[in-house]
Amino acid sequence: MALKLDAGKLKELMSDFYILTNIRIVIFDDEYHEILAYPESLSPLCHIMKSHETTRGKCQKSDVDSFEACKNTGKLVIYHCHAGLIEATAPLKDKGVIIGYIMFGQIADTKNKKDLAAVIGRRYQTSSIPAAQWQSAIRKVEYKSLPEIKAAAKILEACTYYVLLNELVSVKHDQLIHRFNQYIADHLQTAMTAQTICENLHISRTRLYELTRQYLGMGIAEYIKEQRMAKARALLAGTDARISEISEMTGFSDYSYFCKVFKKAYGLSPKEYRVKLRDL
Fold first, then answer.
1. How far apart are the C-alpha atoms of 224 and 208, rounded to whole Å?
2. 38, 100, 151, 237: least surrounded by Cβ within 10 Å?
3. CA–CA separation, 163 vs 17, rounded Å?
4. Can you give the pLDDT of all 280 residues of the chain as single tens digits?
5. Under DSSP, is residue 242 helix (H, G, I), strand (E, B) or coil?
6. HEC secondary structure over 63-116
7. Which alpha helices (DSSP H) does the chain contain, by range?
8. How far apart are CA 176 and CA 197, in angstroms?
9. How many CB atoms sit inside 10 A of residue 162's CB?
């Protein structure tokens, strides 16, 4: 979903986190796309891992696994990535719906860099990455003790509340509701389901239901029917189209059902409604 960022204040907060912890922090949207990082550059080891085809996919899978764990539990998760580094991911929630994630990582939980080198060596000894290259990068990995990692994770969670409370990251509600309304208006003649709406707006089903509840005060099916009836009234009043044509133009393939729904909504059949307007 489209997010609205206060980039200046976000970078200031992320910089403060880095000054305090010396740990890189990254913000992702709900579709797992990176949208902001501090520092912008990767650590030497992660740069190597993400620069090689044999390990790039594993980096991406580690990230996705953490996002999925957040989505399933709704909570912060701390884990080892595929290369043995420690990372933590916390969900950003807007009214209970996950709109993005904050992650920190690229640190080690062991002082003995030989142990870390042994893990990578066992996993990637047959890869195209020269051993000397990643061994040199391992020496530059930041070490944090378990209490320090847990403390940083608590601060990260506090950051998520601060970010949302101050709307440093928020959903572009106006844009989203506009896109939703426009999609409905453009497709009144066709069959619509929650699934097709989600696919075309690129949002989750959960987000769609939250959107309609918050901004429309009714269910999706009810809203679509209301918009179809509104268009039918406009066509009856402003055109000479046959009622059977108006039925099709508003998504009702069954003419009798259209008349039944219209009369239930307005107390008059479509024909009676048109006659009444013209008698005014």
1. 13
2. 237
3. 13
4. 678 899 999 999 999 999 999 999 999 998 899 999 999 999 999 998 888 887 889 999 999 999 999 988 888 999 999 989 999 999 998 766 788 999 999 999 988 888 888 888 887 765 667 777 778 888 899 999 999 999 999 999 999 989 988 889 987 766 777 788 889 999 999 989 999 999 999 888 888 887 777 677 678 888 899 899 989 988 998 888 999 999 999 999 899 999 999 999 889 999 998 888 776 5
5. coil
6. HHHHHHHHHHHCCCEEEECCCCCEEEEEEEEECCEEEEEEEEEEEECCCCHHHH
7. 7-21, 44-51, 53-73, 113-124, 131-138, 146-165, 173-186, 194-201, 205-215, 220-238, 243-249, 255-266, 270-279
8. 12
9. 12
CA-only gyration radius of the chain, Å = 27
Is 116 in a helix, a strand, or coil?
helix
Structure-token match 């501090």, residue found: 38
State how far the Cα of 200 lies from the Cα of 78, in Å rounded to an integer: 34
Structure tokens at 118: 């042994």
Token pair recorded at residue 64 = 């996705």
Q: Specify whether the backbone of 167 is left (phi greater than 0), alpha (psi in -120 to 50) or beta.
A: left
Residue 88's beta-bridge partner residues? Answer: 78, 104
